């Protein structure tokens, strides 16, 4: 282990900036923090190493892994989710396995696409990252379809298109590939999504992701006439309980997805998916297949993953003391905003 100074010692030295009495949380939870670095199999939206902080509480392990560029205010729901996961039991589960989709990064080499597809055994749905180059996007989708001709295809744009570009590109994709299950976040703003939904002439449903989780208050976002499907991610939305409340509030069909998390975070997403009585879409909870190392095993069997708590194994994955301190400082800055 690289850590020279325990998290508890660091917390004690930083006590002046914290007020632990404002929420039901103890310094013992933060003292269990471990930080790991998980290498990816390929570049995934600029990420080659996924850093993750973990806490152990009375209910198990919780994951705190906002992306490195996020500011402390953006990290608040991620920390709230980690605290909930570590300290609260999962809600009632209605199934012990969850059907998942495969996720294909923006790869252009056919052999690389084939290798990634092979890591999703029995999966009947693939979400393909698109948005940078239309001809490359179509070729990527065509390659996935050739490898799994019976699988459903959905695409994820991450909000990078204008309305006009979305109309042009979605028409071209539909004409070349045929049926697309849905397009996730084709445009950035709710106003653009609403305009696109009005003007789009091809039958491709729209799913919303960033429009919800990156809003100042996801309960106040008016999604009527803008999207058809709500994408829920546990950490960015503040935990399982809050994700449920958002689903009830917006009253749309849902799909559960992940944020390239470790096995601990994925397990929490699986619990969210299993806690809904009805799920109509395969869930984006198989992103562990994009990592070349992990702290736990959640194998895909016939397109499904078992819902279970993870007892992490940290051997060889913990970060340097410098990176640990960086995460500790990040935790403190985020905690100050909560406490």
Automatic annotation (TrEMBL):
<dbReference type="InterPro" id="IPR013342">
    <property type="entry name" value="Mandelate_racemase_C"/>
</dbReference>
<dbReference type="Pfam" id="PF18374">
    <property type="entry name" value="Enolase_like_N"/>
</dbReference>
<dbReference type="InterPro" id="IPR036849">
    <property type="entry name" value="Enolase-like_C_sf"/>
</dbReference>
<feature type="domain" description="Mandelate racemase/muconate lactonizing enzyme C-terminal">
    <location>
        <begin position="110"/>
        <end position="203"/>
    </location>
</feature>
<keyword id="KW-0479">Metal-binding</keyword>
<dbReference type="GO" id="GO:0046872">
    <property type="term" value="F:metal ion binding"/>
</dbReference>
<dbReference type="InterPro" id="IPR029065">
    <property type="entry name" value="Enolase_C-like"/>
</dbReference>
<dbReference type="Pfam" id="PF13378">
    <property type="entry name" value="MR_MLE_C"/>
</dbReference>
<protein>
    <submittedName>
        <fullName>Unannotated protein</fullName>
    </submittedName>
</protein>
């Amino acid at each position: 282990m690289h850590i020279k100074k325990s998290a508890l010692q660091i917390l004690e030295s930083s006590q002046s900036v914290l007020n632990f009495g404002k929420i039901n949380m103890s310094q013992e939870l933060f003292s269990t923090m471990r930080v790991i670095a998980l290498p990816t199999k390929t570049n995934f939206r600029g990420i080659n190493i996924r850093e993750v902080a973990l806490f152990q509480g009375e209910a198990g392990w919780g994951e705190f892994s906002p992306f490195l560029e996020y500011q402390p205010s953006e990290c608040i729901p991620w920390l709230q989710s980690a605290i909930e996961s570590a300290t609260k039991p999962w809600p009632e589960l209605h199934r012990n396995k969850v059907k998942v989709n495969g996720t294909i990064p923006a790869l252009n080499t056919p052999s690389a696409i084939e290798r990634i597809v092979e890591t999703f055994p029995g999966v009947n749905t693939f979400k393909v990252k698109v948005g940078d180059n239309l001809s490359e996007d179509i070729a990527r989708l065509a390659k996935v379809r050739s490898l799994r001709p019976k699988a459903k295809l959905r695409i994820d744009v991450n909000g990078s298109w204008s309305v006009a570009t979305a109309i042009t590109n979605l028409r071209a994709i539909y004409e070349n590939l045929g049926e697309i299950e849905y397009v996730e976040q084709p445009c950035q703003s709710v106003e653009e999504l609403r305009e696109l939904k009005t003007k789009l002439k091809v039958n491709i449903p729209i799913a919303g992701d960033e429009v919800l989780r990156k809003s100042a208050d996801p309960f106040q976002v008016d999604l009527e006439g803008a999207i058809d499907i709500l994408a829920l991610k546990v950490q960015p939305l503040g935990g399982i309980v809050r994700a449920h409340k958002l689903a009830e509030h917006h009253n749309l069909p849902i799909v559960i997805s992940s944020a390239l998390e470790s096995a601990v975070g994925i397990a929490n997403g699986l619990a969210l998916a299993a806690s809904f009585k009805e799920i109509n879409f395969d869930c984006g909870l198989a992103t562990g297949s994009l990592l070349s190392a992990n702290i736990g095993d959640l194998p895909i069997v016939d397109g499904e993953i078992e819902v279970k708590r993870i007892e992490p194994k940290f051997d060889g994955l913990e970060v340097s003391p410098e990176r640990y301190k960086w995460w500790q400082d990040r935790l403190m800055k985020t905690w100050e905003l909560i406490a």
